[in-house]
Amino acid sequence: MPLLRIELDSDKQTARRILRLYQSGQIHRESRDAAREEVWRRGRTPAAEPVFVGITNGEPARLIYDVEVHPDTT
Q: How far is CA 5 from the centre of its chain?
């Protein structure tokens, strides 16, 4: 299945807090749901739950998710 990389804007403090959540084995539902919604907005169908990859070091900080999507069937 193809992967779609999603980057969500955040601020540094929130991004670091979410990173710590994932490092401790927890899930941040709001950002995961936002990543899924972004996939739908781009016209693709998610095939699995978004996977948290990490955060960027730039400004604004971004949360990075990889989402498996169904292949195009055009």
A: 7
Indicate the pairing of strand 3-10 with strand 61-68.
Answer: antiparallel
When pLDDT is averaged across residues 62-66 and rounded to a whole number, the result is: 98
Residues linked to residue 54 through DSSP beta bridges, in sequence order: 64
Digit-coded pLDDT (tens) for 38-59: 999 999 999 999 999 999 998 8
Q: How would you list the strands of the sheet with 3-10, edge to edge?
A: 3-10, 61-68, 51-55
Is the alpha carbon torsion for 33, 38, 43, 49 positive or negative? negative
pLDDT at 31: 98
Domains of the chain: which residue ranges? 12-48
